[in-house]
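Tokens in:
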């Protein structure tokens, strides 16, 4: 399928980021905007198609960039039958890292697990980096330069991205370094800052992380089977005014009051793409996860549902969402994110309501989810470990404010 800039690109306003004031929001990517799983998967496969047949005689390692390109990276690796790993900002137990920076990001430090690169560097011919968007190419050059300095092996490099906004100077530098580039849509960023600054930023900003009561959520992570938890009496959220000072409407009382029924499903197998995985085996793992969820939760009466990933953990949620979609359910998929994006009431603006949360991975970290709606069932799929109650409580409250009463937590 052919894609155009108009098909995919929406411009949003970054918050508190003077390095780059705009954010390119891809409406089919499934990160910030809820998307039909089939549409996201189709776009990811189209990107993989740009690479097919190019490196059939080479052993590839595909690396996806956290947090927005982790699902794209797995999908591309699976189509190519290649091994896969992702960059990360999280702590990986018992690992040493290669560090590099993402200069325009709100969270600049990125890293790769060095131990796994050490293990395979002598067996691979080419590393293919996968991104949602390449604007200047500096971030990827940073990590390529580190890899070339670290290892004496002759490794070739390629970059595949859904969007490419590199100018002629940046394209020439990649040609000089013999780095091949692939993309679905070429973009021109010249007007993006002006577009972003034209928006009012007067959407709904709802804080769901302060004055909540996590003692009302009990998650027995030692359980081997699904447990049912009832969540109630969680404190009301704080609503901030939009940047215009416009008074925000409060959530409907019926959306706040009442009980939330939550099923908890513990996953006893775990594959971590922060370490190198075989993409075929990873797809099989995701299929197993879907079977576990389908078998252990009664979703027969569910007609419309949301499947949510958390931060870097996106592909398993997307895979599960696609499987439920294939069963005839009306499904949407997106994920929590570290990205603080302004929201606005304009019809042509991509995001209208922002929920500010505590991260499941670190309760001191702020994360966000955008434009939640009411569904029959919401399935949260996360790889967060340890003490997650505050983060879960925060996310569940945002879902409760949005009118959702049946939630399935998978971790």
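Residues out:
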């Amino acid at each position: 399928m052919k894609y155009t800039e108009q098909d995919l690109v929406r411009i949003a306003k970054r918050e508190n980021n003077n390095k780059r004031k705009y954010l390119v929001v891809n409406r089919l990517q499934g990160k910030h905007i809820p998307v039909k799983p089939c549409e996201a998967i189709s776009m990811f496969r189209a990107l993989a198609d740009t690479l097919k047949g190019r490196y059939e005689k080479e052993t590839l390692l595909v690396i996806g960039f956290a947090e927005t390109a982790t699902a794209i990276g797995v999908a591309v690796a699976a189509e190519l039958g290649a091994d896969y790993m992702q960059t990360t900002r999280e702590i990986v137990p018992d690992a040493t890292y290669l560090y590099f920076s993402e200069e325009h990001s709100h969270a600049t430090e990125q890293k790769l697990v060095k131990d796994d690169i050490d293990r395979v560097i002598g067996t691979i011919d080419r590393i293919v980096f996968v991104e949602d968007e390449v604007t200047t190419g500096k971030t990827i050059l940073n990590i390529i330069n580190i890899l070339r300095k670290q290892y004496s092996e002759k490794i070739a490099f390629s970059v595949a991205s859904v969007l490419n906004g590199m100018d002629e100077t940046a394209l020439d530098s990649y040609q000089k370094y013999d780095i091949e580039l692939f993309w679905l849509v070429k973009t021109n960023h010249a007007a993006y800052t002006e577009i972003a600054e034209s928006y009012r930023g007067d959407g709904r900003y709802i804080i769901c992380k302060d004055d909540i009561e996590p003692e009302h959520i009990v998650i027995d992570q030692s359980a081997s089977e699904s447990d049912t938890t009832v969540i109630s009496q969680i404190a009301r959220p704080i609503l901030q005014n939009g940047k215009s000072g416009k008074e925000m409407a409060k959530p409907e009382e019926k959306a706040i009051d009442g009980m939330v029924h939550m099923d908890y499903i513990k996953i006893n197998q775990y594959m971590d793409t922060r370490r190198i995985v075989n993409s075929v085996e990873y797809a099989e793992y995701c299929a197993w996860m879907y079977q576990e969820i389908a078998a252990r939760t009664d979703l027969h009466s569910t007609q419309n549902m949301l499947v949510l990933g958390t931060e870097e953990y996106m592909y398993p949620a997307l895979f599960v969402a696609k499987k439920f979609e294939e069963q005839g359910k009306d499904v949407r998929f997106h994920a929590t994110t570290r990205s603080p994006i302004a929201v606005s009431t304009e019809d042509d603006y991509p995001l209208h309501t922002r929920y500010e949360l505590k991260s499941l991975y670190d309760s001191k970290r702020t994360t966000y989810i955008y434009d939640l709606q009411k569904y029959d069932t919401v399935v949260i799929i996360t790889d967060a470990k340890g003490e997650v109650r505050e983060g879960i409580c925060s996310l569940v409250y945002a879902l409760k404010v949005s009118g959702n009463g049946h939630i399935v937590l998978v971790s």
